[in-house]
Amino acid sequence: MTDLVVIGGGPAGMLCAIQSAQRGLSVTVLDRNLQLGRKLRITGKGRCNVTNDCDTREFMANIPGDGRFLYSAMSRFGTREVMAYFESLGVPLKVERGNRVFPVSDNANDIANALVRECERLGVRTLRCSARSIETKDGAVCAVQTDAEKIPCRAAAICTGGLSYSKTGSDGWGFRMAAKLGHTVTPLRPSLVPLESDDAWCAEMQGFSLRNVTLSAYEDGKLIFRELGEMLFTHFGVSGPLVLSASAKMRHMGSAEYRLLIDLKPALDEKKLETRILRDIEENPKRSFHNLLGGLAGRSMVPVLEQLTGIPGEQRCTDFTREQRQKLIQILKAFPVSVSGTRPIDEAIVTAGGVSTKEVDPRTMESKLVKGLYFAGEVLDLDAYTGGFNLQIAWCTGFVAGNAVEKNT
Predict the structure, then answer these.
(1) pLDDT, tens digit, for every residue of 355-391?
(2) Entry pTM
(3) What is the pLDDT of residues 76-126, one digit of tens each?
(4) I need a surface site. Which of 34, 162, 258, 265 has the fewest CB within 10 A?
(5) Is 90 exceeded by the pLDDT of residue 408?
(6) Cα–Cα distance between 289 and 402 in angstroms, integer?
């Protein structure tokens, strides 16, 4: 008889296992990958944005859904506690722009390996297999059936992640197990995901990146996101940090209309931008509109700007009308991109939706429907914006679940 079977050896699963094992419980982790923490090892482009060095109030502001569910967990294992924990495991951390926390080594493997070593030190048993079902008796967990054996246990924790990066093992099986046990799984959708556009000019500029631009996103005409940063055009639409962050605000794709506006010159208001353009014309009045654009935007954007403004590229600047100048300023300050949808969920960083938090005790992460059943991490209907907040959800829910499993008395 094992005290706890943890299904999924990702960040939430490993921390849940560690906390239980530290309290003297016998713990078995099920994960079909050769390495634990496979998805963790590739997060943050392999650097691992561990958490965000902010207070609980700011953290909650970065949770678009039911952030209140996390108050108890954050009070026990908040961002500062997470940072101190990994430092205690011998992984020095650093804080970068936006209070993002990374290992000093910029190597996600250091975070994953530290957790693996701690599991090994505490005697956590790891089986390279998949869970097929969770069995119950009299409304309580009694066993986990794997593809190789049945493991009798007193508790089980579903820490299987979402649907993104399915090659790492996030194939949605945890949602199906939860549903089979009576839990509600809210609609699953991609978040922190590139966006598709029907605008032909996106594909025309594929591979072209923009830095220090302001991206604004609108839902049915209402502003829902505005931020300064980086993005890029792709063959399907747009991607990059700004786009991923904006996508997390798009909670009603399919039923609402979304569009983007890019301020290509955020440091200049319209009056100053006009002054800049007039100065450029005065310095070389015989230059063509095509050449003028070369000094205002990247080369890849020039043909598109000519198309959107309707101004011929060969037109001389001396023939520039006030109406044409205003049209150019309008496009430079609000370059339009329509949104037709998101990329597939497998390309998303995070899965939004999941096991309803209404059916989980926020103080313990235990199911309100099945005794001895726990949830932690992305399998829950919790997601956040970029900046280390999603991993923080995994850490604090895994910590709470691991500390809540009762000892066999």
Answers:
(1) 999 999 999 999 999 999 999 999 999 999 999 999 9
(2) 0.90
(3) 999 999 999 999 999 999 999 999 999 999 999 999 999 999 999 999 999
(4) 34
(5) no
(6) 64
* 81: phi then psi, degrees, rounded to nearest 5: -65, -40
Nearest to 164 by CA among 246, 42, 47: 42
List C-alpha distances in Å: 5 to 16, 108, 338, 384, 405: 10, 25, 47, 27, 11
Letter string b/e over residues 348-367, b meaning 16 or more CB atoms within 10 A of that residue's CB: bbbbbbbbbbebbbbebbbb
3-state SS track over 143-172: EEEECCCEEEEEEEEECCCCCCCHHHCCCC
Cα-based angle 233, 235, 236 (whole degrees, multiple of 5): 90
Calpha distance 28→21 (Å, rounded) = 10
Taking a C-beta distance cutoff of 8 angstroms, is the pair 345, 164 a contact? Answer: yes
**Alpha-carbon torsion 77, 119, 4, 406, what sign?**
negative
- Beta strands 189-191 and 258-263 are unpaired
Residue type, 155: A
Residue 264: name the closest of 322, 211, 227, 222 by CA. Answer: 211
pLDDT one-digit tens code per residue, 166-216: 666 667 899 999 999 999 999 999 999 999 999 999 999 999 999 999 999
Determine the pLDDT at residue 169: 62
Position 64 pLDDT exceeds 90: no
Structure tokens at 17: 């296992």
Strands 150-158 and 2-7: parallel
**CA gap 26, 37 in Å, rounded:** 20
In DSSP terms, 264 is beta-bridged to none
Q: How far apart, in whole angstroms, are the C-alpha atoms of residue 275 and residue 325?
A: 11
Q: What is the DSSP letter of 187?
A: P
Alpha-carbon gap, residue 38 to 54, rounded angstroms: 27
In terms of DSSP bridges, do strands 258-263 and 209-219 run parallel, antiparallel, or are they unpaired? antiparallel
- Coil, helix or strand at residue 201: helix
Which letter does DSSP use for residue 287 in this model?
S
